[in-house]
Structures are given as structure tokens and as C-alpha cells.
Amino acid sequence: MQARQLMAASLGLVAFLALAGYALDRAFVDVAGQVQRDRLKAYAYNYVRNIDFWRNGDIYVPEIPTDPRFDQPGSGLYAVVVLPEGEQSWRSMSTRGPQLPEEEMLAPNQEEFRGPLPIVKTNGQPGEVFRYGIGVAAVQDSGGGVEIERPYTVYVMEDEGSLARQVRVFRTALWGYLGIAGAVLLLLQTLVLRWSLWPLRNVVSELKRVQRGQANRMSEHHPRELEPLTDSINALVESERENLDHQRNTMSDLAHSLKTPLAVLRTRLDNDASEAELREEVDTQLRRMNDLVGYQLGRAASAGHKLFAAPIDIEPHAEQIVRGLEKIYADKGVICEFDIDDGVQFYGEPGDLQELLGNLLENAFKWAKSRVLLTARPAEQQPNRRPGLVLVVDDDGPGIPEDRIAYVLQRGVRGDERVQGHGIGLSIVQDLVRSYRGQLAVGPSQELGGARFQVTLPPGL
Length: 461
Hints:
This protein is an alpha+beta fold and 461 residues long. Helices cover 48% and strands 20% of the residues. The radius of gyration is 51 Å and the shape is rod-shaped.
């Protein structure tokens, strides 16, 4: 995960630096070109301000100390004043040697900036220049108050190499600094990723210790963002451990319970009992073993639910159970009413829901006079957790005295020995509720006047 994140972040960083470098490079080239144009324009305007004409029409260009390169042949900075056809143009000393592009007259106040244009340098090597030109129309007093217009064009040219050198120096510095910045950012990025993923590595390390049996569960010291993950792992580990222990205990209890009837049968066989006595004893012990097996299977059914299960609608299962109970207790004429909120669901195994509803409703039908009420509503809500559930079953029977509630909830105990049953239904409900980390509350029913059994299941992971 760290390698993938580092690779993705590095690619993004490289792409960003490349785009930033390209944008800065283009911006510098544009600015440098504009600066060169402004510089050549300043040279040209300086010549325009100082150019004059003699009375005989010859042009006069004084020595302008703007840049000494104008006076150095082949220096790379050139000035040319172009006059109308038939008149001698003026050229700076620097134009001696190289072959410059042909110049043409520009209209008054017309400006142009072109380049790079090809030239041949003094040494015969090809080169390029940038050229700025401006057209001027000077007014000359020819005497007697008569003024004439003298058009001319000033060109100032500079070798392209000066701009290229600036761009080259800038690019060297730019990509060098960007490279250093990229290396520093990659290092910081690596450190930040290692620091941010440190809690996750701790979770992986603890999980390996749990897998190897070196630890029983995940620790509680983890960032808030990882708590749902560690809580789920702990719940899964605890659930599997409880399921395993429950299965072992169930098999052990079943084996222990079957030892006595088997021993009785062995004793009767060894004592040479008559066929009638042996048949009677086998029938008795078989019924006993059948009850024991049913008891242990019921106990096993209350364990091993899935920790992460899809939600189940409650009403269809409740209707199926009630239809069967109404047939069994048809002689009593018991009516079961539903008060189930829209969208309320049970998060667990369908068998667990069947056990909960089946045992609670059967117990209510058994003791009710004529009415049973099933209520289902959501429990408290918590962010990022599945909702809890409250199941309530009320009946209009005789109720349970407060001092007998704990006694009735014991395994194998019946509220009334005259009522048929094994006394393990409510115990199975307790085991199921405990396995879902919920609570079972028993008390008087305010709605129907009999007993109320309320199951509260907390919000899940």
C-alpha cells in the first residue's frame, strides 16, 4: 500500500513539476523576447531623437553612446537608417562584415518586430538576428519658411545568441532547482507516508500476533479511524472463540448426558432382564436420550451466528411463526397483533431470528388468554454503525411475579410444571441475546396486563 501510494504521489509530483517547469520556461521565453523588443525599441528611439538632416539633404547621425557594441564591427548589435530610394543609407560600424537581411522602408509611425531572421556572420557562419524597425517622417526647414518631409526608417538588430544564452542559463537554473525541490518533496512525501501508515502497520503486526497465538485480541490503542476495523477483528475473534467453546461444551455435555441412560441400558442387559422389562426400559431411556439430544441441539442452535450478516425483514418471519402457533393453540382463540415500524430489520442469521421470535411468541401463546402483541422498532443509532433493534412480546396472561423472573429464566425450569414443555426456550433466547451482546428484560406488560419480554440488540459494527 505504501509503495503504491508513493508511486502514485511521485508520478503526480513529477507531472506537476514538469508542467510547472514548462509553464515557467514559456513565460520566461515570452518575457525575455518582450524585454529584447523593448531594448531594441529604446535603441531605435534614441537614434530617432538624435538624427538630423543637413541643408543639402544629407543625413546626420551623431555618435550616440547608448551601447559601445554599435561601434565594434561584427559585435552582434547593429543599427541601420534606411532612406528613400536614390539616397545613401546610414549603417553603424558594427554592420561591417556580416551580411544582414535586406531592409525596406516602413510607413511613418509603422513599427515591426521580426525574428529570428537569417544572416551570415563575419566568419562566414550562418546566424540569426531579431530586428526592430520604426518608420519616421522628419520635417526639415529648407529655408524661406518652407518645410519639407524627409521619411526614413530606423532598424536595430541583435544576434539571436544573446536571447538563447539567457534562456539557456535560465533553463539550467530552473530545472536544477526543480530537481532539488522534487527530491526534497519526494523525501518528505516518503516520511509523511511512513508516518501516516504507521498505525496501519501496527494493526497488521498485531493481527499477525493474533494469528500466531501470541495475543488473544487486538489492543485498544489505535487511531479513531481504525477503531471500526480493530473492533470488527476483535468481535470476529471473540465470536469464533465463543462458538468453538460453545460447540466443545455442547458436545461434552451431550456425551456426559448420554452416559447415564447408556449405562442404565448396559446394566439391564447385564442383569438378564426379561424381554418385557428390557423393552420398557429401552423405551424409557430412548425417550430420555431423545429429550437430551433435543435439548443439546437447541442449545447449539443458540450459538454460531454470523458476525457480519445481511439485514432480514422481521414481519415475514413473524407471520410464518404466528400462523403455525394459531393452529396449535386454536382452542384458545389467541390473536396476535403486530406493531412493527417500517424498515426495521434484524442483522443476523435467519435461524437466530426464528429462534428468538419462535420461543418468545410460543411462550406468549402458551400463557396468553386471548391476546399477544409483537412490537419491533429500531434501537439507538450511532454513526457508521448498523442500527440496533428492540423486540417486545406482550401477552394478557397471568404474568410473572418479580421474585420468580430469575428462576423462570433458568435452563430446564418451567413456570408451571403442569404446562407442557422442556423449560429451555427462554434459556435459548437468553443465550442468543447474549451472543449478539444484547439484553433481555422481563417484567409486567403495561399494554395487555400480562408478561412482557423485551430484547434489545445494540448497534452493530
